[in-house]
Hints:
The structure is a single chain. The protein is of the alpha/beta class. α5 packs parallel to α7 (189-198). It has helices spanning 12-15, 23-37, 50-64, 68-90, 124-135, 168-175, 189-198, 210-217, and strands at 5-10, 42-47, 112-115, 139-144, 149-150, 162-163, 165-166, 201-206, 225-227. It has a single domain (5-227), classed as Acetylglutamate kinase-like (Carbamate kinase). The strands form 2 sheets. Strands 3-2-1-4-8-9-7 form a 7-stranded mixed sheet, with helices on both faces.
Amino acid sequence: MSSSYQILSVGGSIIIPSSGFDIEFLKKFRALILNRVKKGEKFVLVVGGGATCRNYQGAAKAVAGLKNVDLDWLGIFGTHFNAEFVRALFGKYAHSEVIKNPTKKIKTDKPIIVSGGWKPGCSTDYDAVLLAKMFGAKVVVNLSNIDFVYTKDPKIFPQAQKIERAIWKEFLKIIGDKWVPGANLPFDPKAAKEAQKLKLKVIFVKGTDLNEVKKVLEGQKAMGTVIE
Length: 228
């Protein structure tokens, strides 16, 4: 299978922020990807759930106190809806269906493949890592709503230190080793362990800063965090 697909893990907070759709951003993001497609590049866009999923999960938990597996399924179906939205934005350039199993071979001649979540116990970060494995990619670009990964949540801990580079062992100490449905972590622990095993590099960049995203896609040094 071709290794020419670039793997982008696109946070749901980028596509559908809690404040509502940012149409201008979506137009620019679409244009950036299509410009690169027209130069011969290919992309796998793994779309997360973001605030949409957390809203559903929070409400369901408050009303019925659901088990983690049920909360995960709510989140997964939310990612599928977000991913269908992204797939529709790219029209004829995108593979005809959203990928829901990152271990199943994909037959397509389209330059854009869009994936949602797979199964309980992990987030779309893990799906992105598995798709990197399938396509032989060595890098996953993680587009989220943060400019750097920090030692703690900087919104809660003002003294949190930003991390520019780290190895997986150090990173796993920060994020812990347990997956919680709806957890707002920079990368899910299961995905981090798999990335470490595969010797993957993950570049975290603020997805709404398209100048920085463009730098990463061009192989230049961008503002963000590199874990390898």
